[in-house]
Amino acid sequence: MSVHFIGAGPGAADLITVRGRDLLGRCETCLYPGSMTPTDLLAHCPDDANLIDTANLDLPAIVERMVEAHRNGHEIARLCSGDPSIYSAVAEQMRRLDAAGVPYDVTPGVPAFAAAAALLNRELTVPEVGQSLVITRAQARSTAMPPGETLANFARTGTTLALHLAINRIEQVVGELRPFYRDDCPAAVVALASQPGEQVLRGTLGTIAAQSREAGISRAAMIFVGEVLAAEGFPDSFLYSATRDRANQPESL
């Protein structure tokens, strides 16, 4: 019996993977983040599954529930919002499961930044405009950022930025980025991507903070800054170029 860490996606129940859905269907115990999990997603669980809302549980209590279910011979689903690989707190859960001798695996999910980019109808890697993406967050009442992982350091590269957990400090974010990006650099905010009440704001570094405040956005939002958000006239990718020797090169970037 195993713990299955499952990426629940950004919010919409139908954005879970087929593998994740099928795992939910066979797990006798499911732990889920109550404030982030749609009811329709839990409907995939067996009718008699033990459903545990982790919203008000601390880490030891969450791990205790998983270890106990494992000892009872249950397959266990541990739903994580978005994708487990970023900002999911699975690392510390895995560390404790290792100590307890409980096996686990991970099923990826659609991350919030990808769902937000889909709403913007934008590719975040555009030929000769931007080929890198920095995914980061703002630090407030949360774990401290490691030394060197500052907005200023990331902004010096001029690359596209995608910021989690920063909407309530958007004025500070804009202030830190202004020395490195023009005021008319394209920017966007996407809140509640794929969920009821989703909002999309398009603007510039100079306008996006005021737009966000006017719209009343205060949670579950991504901030994007970068030229790719309004790129036009860029060259086609070499991927599908007529000059490419497809006989000797795989279909990849």
UniProtKB/TrEMBL annotation:
Keywords: Cobalamin biosynthesis, Methyltransferase, S-adenosyl-L-methionine, Transferase. It comes from the Bacteria. GO terms for molecular function: precorrin-4 C11-methyltransferase activity. Residues 3-208 form the Tetrapyrrole methylase domain. One of its GO terms (biological process) is cobalamin biosynthetic process. Pathway: Cofactor biosynthesis; adenosylcobalamin biosynthesis. InterPro entries: 4pyrrol_Mease, 4pyrrol_Methylase_sf, 4pyrrole_Mease_sub1, 4pyrrole_Mease_sub2, Cbl_synth_CobM/CibF, Siro_Cobalamin_biosynth, Uropor_MeTrfase_CS. It holds the Pfam family TP_methylase. NCBIfam families: cobM_cbiF. PANTHER family: COBALT-PRECORRIN-4 C(11)-METHYLTRANSFERASE, SIROHEME SYNTHASE-RELATED. Belongs to the precorrin methyltransferase family. This is Precorrin-4 C(11)-methyltransferase. It comes from Amycolatopsis coloradensis.
